[in-house]
Design brief:
It is a single chain. The chain has 438 residues and is α/β, with parallel strands linked by helices. Helices cover 30% and strands 24% of the residues.
Length: 438
């Protein structure tokens, strides 16, 4: 039995970090870190490939470390090296393995079908809210195709047996990660498969990211209407060297920092990317920020912000930082809809955003699937929680720019999940904070 361990220990030993954020003005330039979402996908495809792959990647996080450790437990040999990640693929399939997914929902949802396609009897464990995050309908579809699961609502999750090809049906409004996991796994099976996706499909850009990765590694998938046809018996062919794109999701925090206070330039972002969170540019521009796009850099300058209506079905991860921009607006009301799935993220993000901003004096209300935020301009100081949620911590840190007093933020270490160097970049742009004991 192989246990994933080692590379992630540094994150598990992290100490609680409470910080005091002071009002500030953001100004300067920062380089986008590599996309966590892209890196997850490149790692999995590389581990399933015919030969080694080098992934150019300028960032390391707890979630990516979890995926690395889990793939190593399945038989890969992956190491963080200067300039990126070295991946030697799985050559001998393991009969059994224990995969510690830490708090990464992407890791467990992507690798459940992959492990089953390899025929590895696997125990998936983890921490934080991971045991609470849903695995249905992926679980039921895998069970219908030969995989035996441990009892429902029992964690760790154990699977036995090799998945067989066939027709899979997945609702598109629960998690695009279920579809991604199947897209990675089904090409490895002997027979052909079809994934039928029941609309509406939310977070569609994440599926497009998966399809892009599969194409880079020589995997054929044919899409027609709401179905994906996947020929069986395919081989992943490594391109040798690949590069993880700059991360629009995490860059959105600093782009918004420019919009609410000063002027911020982010380099290393591709405006032609299929990442859905590049929509932050459209949103900030519509709200009144000044945006300049040049080759290799994007600059956002503070403008006279006003409220707008936002459908977040394809950009749920942007909701915390969009809410910050809305709180900083000088006019109008921002209405965010289509964000119901935020209730099952690292925290219940709808509640987390509502409670935090309410505590800091923002005129905000919560609906069944979103938020309504009235113009505030300047928010108050106070003590708030980070909710063990990296996106909440980063959003609240940016909010400090327009606060009238200090913000005490508890649990700031949650940034390690996706952006361990966030506070270094935050400080370089003029953000002001210090670590406190309580």
């Amino acid at each position: 039995l192989v246990r994933s361990r080692g590379l992630g220990d540094v994150y598990k030993r992290q100490l609680l970090m409470n910080i005091r954020l002071k009002p500030c003005r953001f100004c300067g330039e920062v380089t986008a870190i590599s996309s966590k979402s892209d890196a997850h996908r490149l790692l999995i495809a590389s581990a399933l490939s015919d030969r080694p792959t080098f992934i150019r990647c300028n960032a390391r996080s707890a979630d990516i470390t979890a995926t690395v450790n889990c793939l190593n437990s399945l038989g890969a040999d992956i190491k963080f090296v200067d300039g990126g990640i070295s991946v030697k693929p799985i050559k001998e399939k393991r009969k059994s393995a224990v995969l510690d997914c830490n708090e990464s929902g992407s890791t467990i949802r992507f690798l459940l079908p992959v492990a089953a396609s390899l025929g590895t009897n696997t125990e998936f464990t983890g921490s934080g809210r991971l045991p609470e995050r849903p695995l249905s309908p992926l679980r039921e579809q895998m069970e219908a195709h030969g995989v035996v699961f441990s009892p429902i609502n029992v964690f760790p999750v154990k699977i036995n047996g090799k998945m067989i090809s066939g027709e899979f049906t997945i609702k598109g409004n629960i998690s695009s990660q279920f579809i991604t996991g199947l897209l990675f796994a089904l090409p490895l099976l002997n027979g052909n498969s079809i994934i039928n996706v029941i609309p509406p499909v939310e977070s569609r850009p994440y599926i497009d990211m998966t399809l892009n990765t599969l194409k880079k590694f020589g995997i054929t998938v044919t899409e027609k209407s709401n179905s994906f046809f996947i020929p069986g018996g395919q081989k992943y062919a490594s391109p040798g060297t690949v590069e993880s794109e700059g991360d629009w999701s995490n860059s959105a925090f600093f782009l918004t920092a420019g919009a609410v206070s000063g002027r911020v330039t982010v380099t290393g972002l591709d405006v032609s990317s299929v990442q859905g969170d590049k929509q932050i540019l459209t949103i900030l521009k519509e709200m009144g920020a000044e945006i300049t796009v040049e080759q290799g850099s994007i600059t956002v300058k503070k403008g006279d912000l006003h409220g707008i209506n936002i459908d977040a079905r394809n950009i749920p991860d942007l909701v915390p930082i969009i809410s910050v921009a809305a709180a900083a607006a000088n006019d109008g009301e921002t209405v965010i809809t289509g964000a119901e799935r935020l209730k099952i993220k690292e925290s219940d993000r709808l509640t987390a955003v509502y409670e935090s901003l309410k505590t800091l004096g923002v005129d905000i209300s919560k609906t069944d699937d979103g938020l309504v935020i009235n113009k505030t301009g300047i928010v108050g100081g106070g003590a708030v929680s980070g909710y063990n949620d990296h996106r909440m911590v980063m959003a609240l840190s940016v909010l400090s720019a327009v606060s009238s007093g200090d913000i005490i933020l508890r649990g700031a270490e949650a940034v390690n999940k996706s952006y361990p160097n966030f506070f270094e970049d935050f400080s370089s742009l003029g953000g002001s904070y210090n670590v406190i004991n309580s």
